[in-house]
Design goal:
Layout: H1 6-17, H2 20-54, H3 72-106, H4 117-135, H5 138-169, H6 173-210, H7 217-225, H8 229-255, H9 260-317, H10 324-378, H11 382-403, H12 413-427
Helix pairs in contact: 1-3, 2-3, 3-4, 3-9, 5-6, 8-9, 8-11, 9-10, 9-11, 9-12, 10-11, 10-12
């Protein structure tokens, strides 16, 4: 299903669906938008310039990002601008998804020729994917991308320091002085990069808090280390936007109070949003059950196998000549393996707890959807539809509260590194 381009979708969409109503809605958004546009634009320009400073050539000067941290008002302004930009395309896709919902109800389970429930459901899933892409918060995505980029720069600098130290071993006194200077510059770069990471984390923390996910700095580190962090952030962001969209659909339903068919259409879009929530939740549960947890189990099994080999080798070297160094290496290996097993078990427990939370929310969302779908099929009074939409808007926040992950800070840096290492293995 194609999305109508943002450059011309408003003109195409307003005439058949909203006439003057859509323009009125935009005016109400513009009142706030115009007041904050210059402030937000200035902030964006500062952020862009800061990014240029951060990601410039490492051979040149690396600057500390000096922009001020974002405020909650800036986050609110960003959200309003984002919703204004995507609103026409969201409505277009919701309208298509709603039409498919009716076709799915009437279609046969399967048939050789023509559409059936499976093919129509697949088409609807494609639309849901487009809606998810529209709803995803670009500012949060940029925060996370920046953090990853800066971490890569830190790793490159650390690798460069290791190479310089290798060269220093056989260097002359004059060469060592030059190499030491390069090492000091690289270390300063790392310090600046790490401070810039903290800036980005602080902005990310503020944005997530505005969307209902309140985490401290240590918990942000844990979240960013988790293999399911993309899914957790995406669900949090989309639930937040869905609550705003439901509010706008309520306004449209109220405006079309005398036109029950149009009012039911907007309520039907709300029903489709509930189905989108169910799809996201089920997708997350499936990913944990079918990908992440099996990979953790495979890592644990492989580690147990290597651990047995290490113990056998340690027993074999006992009493042997020139084996002290070997035994020391094997003991170190055993400690590392035990840490891997411990962290892998904790990792699995965290994912299982989060899966169970989402499973509980999924069960409630399915009930909400069935009630909303039944209402869409039977209720003929727009006032009743508005009341039910208001209740459902509150249910988005309730679902989010159920799904908020239990994020426990790392006990030490060693566990954090192992956790990040396992995340890389699981992703690969």
């Amino acid at each position: 299903m194609k999305i109508i381009g943002l450059t011309f979708s408003i003109a195409l969409f307003i005439q058949p669906f909203f006439s003057g109503l859509y323009a009125d809605w935009l005016d109400s958004i513009d009142q706030t938008y115009n007041e904050t546009f210059n402030k937000t634009k200035q902030y964006s320009e500062q952020a862009i310039q800061g990014s240029k400073d951060i990601y410039g050539s490492l051979t040149g000067e690396v600057k500390l990002l000096t922009k001020e941290g974002i405020t909650h008002q800036i986050v609110i302004d960003e959200k309003q601008q984002h919703l204004k930009k995507i609103w026409p395309d969201v409505l277009t896709n919701l309208d298509e998804a709603l039409a498919l919902n009716g076709k799915i109800d009437q279609a046969p389970e399967s048939r050789w020729f023509g559409a059936d429930k499976k093919s129509l459901s697949d088409d609807q899933l494609d639309i849901f994917s487009e809606i998810e892409a529209l709803l995803n918060n670009p500012a949060i995505a940029e925060n996370r991308k920046n953090i990853s980029r800066i971490k890569e720069r830190v790793e490159k600098e650390q690798h460069q320091i290791a190479k310089l130290k290798e060269q220093r071993v056989i260097a002359t006194s004059e060469e060592k002085a030059a190499l030491n200077k390069k090492i000091q510059i690289a270390m300063r770069h790392i310090d600046i990069f790490k401070q810039n990471i903290e800036h980005e984390k602080s902005d990310l923390q503020t944005r997530l808090q505005e969307m209902g996910l309140t985490l401290d700095a240590n918990q942000i580190d844990v979240l960013l280390s988790r293999v399911d962090s993309d899914d957790i952030v995406k669900m949090s962001v989309i639930y937040d936007v869905l609550a705003d969209i439901t509010k706008q659909l309520m306004e449209l339903t109220r405006e079309f109070n005398e036109d029950i068919n149009q009012a039911r259409k907007y309520y039907g879009m709300h029903v489709v949003l509930l189905k989108l929530v169910i799809t996201m939740q089920q997708s997350y549960i499936d990913k944990l059950n079918q990908v992440y947890l099996p990979k953790i189990e495979a890592i644990k099994n492989e580690t147990i196998k290597v651990n047995r080999e290490s113990r056998a080798l340690l027993k074999f070297t006992t009493g042997a000549e020139r084996s002290n160094a070997q035994r020391s290496v094997l003991r170190h290996n055993l400690q590392a393996q035990q840490l891997t097993l411990k962290v892998a078990e904790l990792y699995a427990q965290q994912l299982i707890k989060q899966r169970d939370k989402v499973q509980k929310a999924l069960s409630l969302a399915k009930v909400d959807y069935r009630v909303a779908k039944n209402t869409f099929d039977t209720v003929k009074l727009s006032a009743e539809l508005i009341r039910l939409m208001k209740t459902s808007q509150q249910s988005f926040n309730a679902l989010m509260n159920i799904q908020i992950p239990e994020i426990v800070p790392f006990k030490n840096i060693e566990m954090q590194k192992k956790f990040e290492e396992l995340s890389t293995l699981i992703k690969n």
